[in-house]
Amino acid sequence: MASSLAPLLIILSFFFFSLSRALPREAVFDAADVLSDSGFVSMALTLEIVAETLLEQSPSATVFAASDSAFKKSGQPSLDLLRFHLSPLPLTPSSLRLLTAGARIPTMLPGQSLTVTTASSDRVTSINNIKLTESPIYDDGFLLVYGIHRFFDPNFQFNSRRPSSDSNSSCSAKNHTAGASDSFDQAIQTLKTGGYSAVASFLGMQLSGVVEQSGITVFAPADDVVMNRIGDIGEYPSFFRRHVVPCRLLWNDLVNFADGSELSTFLEGFAINITRSDGVLILNGVPVFFPDVFFNDRVVVHGVSDVLAAQGNALHENALNVDDEENQFDPSEY
């Protein structure tokens, strides 16, 4: 197993920053200067005004900057509309390209998200049916700014052809069925090319061909995080089981859970607690930084910034010490 985890692919850049870090004021003003020089004068001035209120409260952000002609046509946007154009995630071009049509991007406007509308034939990313500049106008690794030709519409509705989600908040593990190898193969290939090869390996070895009728949801830490956090091969089964929920939960399902809700996992006694902080969804203290990395009719994957640990030390110790025999996926158990 160790050899299968050794080759690490390109890691998405936004997993490397510390949550305790706040965006420095200097970065915001540098971004405003670059925006102004690039012909986005109105957004540059607006960014300087709202920096302390919005951006300096977050360790990272992506700004979708409307053009001067958009300001001229629509006037100065409200604070809520500005929040709708800011995401707390540092969305690099490579991470945006991994998001398929229908994927949701959280914004700093509570309860509101943007929707990826990029078609497979498009060379540039489209959000809410508005194309972004092909490359960021500004990018320091934590703060990224893309240009758009008009403001996003908060009432935009995506005509989704995504499979419907019959999510079950209790997520009880039962009613396994076979015949889902194609669904797993698709998920595994996407994860391997997106910096989640460790989780892809677990998925292939422990779940391929075995899935519940209600599907599964995988909360996937990036490769470097996994390799740094687990060293004993005996911990691998319990590690994987606590990151998998036995029901299919898309991003729009997750955001509808109230704070304090719990999701049961395949690791007996281990639950995932849902909370929020500044509009970011938090699972056992770990932010969801890449919603809907992958989804099909049976499997949904969300990227998380760290390994999910139990909320209580006693439960955590119990989870890590479950016998290996009990930690193996066995279809006959269900």
From TrEMBL:
PROSITE patterns with a match to the protein in the record: FAS1 (PS50213)
SMART domains named among the record's database cross-references: FAS1
Domain of life where this protein originates: Eukaryota
Sections of the chain in a coiled coil: none
Signal peptide (UniProt feature, chain positions): 1-22
This protein's UniProt keywords: Signal
InterPro entries, sorted: FAS1_dom_sf (IPR036378), FAS1_domain (IPR000782), Fasciclin-like_AGP (IPR052806)
Domain FAS1: from-to ranges: 28-156, 171-308
Entry's family note: Belongs to the fasciclin-like AGP family.
Protein name per Swiss-Prot or TrEMBL: FAS1 domain-containing protein
Source organism of this protein record: Sphenostylis stenocarpa
